[in-house]
Amino acid sequence: LREDQPGGSPDRRDVESAVFHLVEAARQDLPEALLALARLASGRAHEDFLPQVFGAPEFLPTCLALLAHAASLQSAAAMGALAGLVLDGDVDSGGGSEELRVASLQLEAYAEESLETMKNKLERLEAKAQRTIGREEDEDEEDEDEDEDDEEDEEDLENEHHCLRGHTFGWEDHGWTPHTALIRAADIWGAEILSQEEGSQARAASLRIGAARAQMLEERLSLAL
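Above: the chain's sequence. Below: its structure in token form.
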């Protein structure tokens, strides 16, 4: 525990109680709790969340295990972060084939999960645009739909403010987009150690096709926003 934080340090018991409840939430497979604990163990900055607690190099395996578990619960942030830790050399892997395989699988999973989210968002945006176009035909119904959308948005913001639902504690800053993740995965299979495995070139080609499609979806969403 750090005791040199500006503005004074909270009571040690308060900090330990917060970590205890975080661990209990993680044991219930709450992705946000797993990501929060992983951040605390990582040694990386988390000034906006329990800055009195800091990790150390010996906690890195714990951090990785927590991220892996969060990734298994469909946390895209955990998937991207875990792949990045392996590929950036933060993990003492020696660049072996198994580590690269793990990185590739996490990159592919991240892309798949993120693309699904993007597709859903694009569908909502396009549906809203269609409702706007048809407003003159049924203006009253459109106004009612807009009111419901506003209420849902306000409720989502309130929930996020009060319970940190969906908070990823900085792990979303891994630098990947779906198409760059798929390109990197393709490179692993097409030009690195795994390129010697049977079927690796076909897999790399398939991933590059997926990357092109992902980029098109990203551009469509960007234009729709």
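Residues 189 and 197 are 8 Å apart (CA to CA).
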